[in-house]
Amino acid sequence: MSGELRKQLPPLPERMRHLPIDARGYPVPYFVAWVDGKPDHRIADGRKFPIAVRQSLCWMCGQKLGSFKSFCIGPMCAITRTISEPPSHLECLRFAATACPFMTRPRAQRREANLPDCGLTTAGDGIRRNPGAVCIWTTKRFTAWHPDTGGVLFRLGDPERTEWYCEGRPATRAEVDESIRTGLPLLRESAQAQDTEQPNAYAMRHLDECIARETRWLDRQEWPTTTTTGAPHQ
Fold it and tell me: How many angstroms separate the CA atoms of 224 and 185, rounded?
């Protein structure tokens, strides 16, 4: 562990300053699994998931959450209002949105090779893509539920606020709309499959209602008119 934060990164929030710094200069979030004495940022530690949920701990820094809970989600999760990861502090997720290589580089792909099998198995049918634009969804209300496939998912309540990011800076409406456009076919395919298997599921109708609800929310937001260059991320 280097102990020195990467120079190109934004300042660490106070709550994250106790976290170890890896050899690349990135902080190691609370949820990260350690394999053979080294952190593997690709893997969430399954042992920490129930602890974070029961004790209301931030998934990023591991400290106690308050009444406001923030979730980092992609546009498809903003439509379905469903996510498989526990909440975090707003400032911790702001750091992640402006520092995490996967979120600041829309073309980045997660390395799946040689993944150890000690990590958390996430619930639901996650869409395996880099959405480009990400949302920090802050709410006072959410519920945990157990899908038929196993695990735990979180259903998000109405947001108190949302913040959208792309390439480590505030996203434009056009960037969010493009991410939605490219992701919706995957959601529609899943909904159509549900309606085929369960004719009374009305999954497509429900999806259309969710899309309309999110579109109304996006229309009420204030958006930057142009992109602003953020700090470089190497």
Answer: 27
